[in-house]
Amino acid sequence: MNEKFKILSIDGGGIKGVFPAFYLTLIEQELAKRDDGKTKIKDHFHLITGTSTGGIIALALSLGIPAKEIYDLYLKNSEKIFGDKKTFLGRIEYSSHDSAFLEKLIRNKFKEYFKDQDPRIKDCLTNVAIPIYDLIKGNPSVIKSPYHPNFKRDLHIPVYQVAMATAAAPTYFNPYSSDYIDLEGIERPFRNKVDGGIMANNPTIIGILEAIKAFGKNIKDLEVLSLGTGYKKFTEGSDSKRKKWGLFYWMVKNDRKRLIELFMQSQSQLVENYISLLYQGIDKTEQDNPNFVYDRVNVLLCEDDLIEMDESDSERIKNFAELAMAEYHERGNGILKKHFY
Length: 341
What we know:
By secondary structure, the protein is an alpha/beta fold.
């Protein structure tokens, strides 16, 4: 019997990343009781993929940072990350937030686990695949650790820079630009990178394809745990007489960026639909004999639960994170047994 190739995938969603971060915190509380030393999330997956906030979490986990520290980082610093939101007039020309504080926060946390040096992608303790969009080249890209002989492009890049690139959500933050010195002492540009959520907000399909093509795994050997950040179905059926569908509605009304919400939700749903096709076949005709092991942990949000990606109120964020506890109490034991033992 072949060993299962284990994949962890984490969605994007801004501060809503507290949902998967807290869920994984609860998992690690149980892992701490193990006597085999496998007490961290990274010890249980061959590949971790994440987009935007999920990319930050994925990279942190790959460096051995406990999930609780990631959760606390978000909760304790949300006001400084998102509390400087520009006025409506300011947001017409500029991004809503300055990313300098977030960059310093992430960089310092990553250095804390790497002898006060900036870890690079090659230093991740498990394999990672982090989607971004490259505005210089005009194409989507996936930053990968060197798990294939051909993957030499990204291994020099500082991990914090990759985290900032995948989290640079349009209108929320400016595209991320920086430079770094590679392992041969040559300065390289790393400029105008944008949030991978514009094309892969749910990166689960990236993990599956990498496992099959880069690692040479059979689909039947895959074991996939996919974590969402909460979702609310985007519908407007109750207002069938609406005539004003312009920019004000899509990007301004009630201070909601509906266009971005729609893109992210529809992309995530499409990925879920196609994974369901791979997993259980057309119309779930293969559900009694699924093609691989797969679990999706997410929560449907009601109006009271919904928070914006740049929510800064710590109490609202903490309440949102508690949804992860409810999900964990419902399915956590099963997830633990299937993916961590």
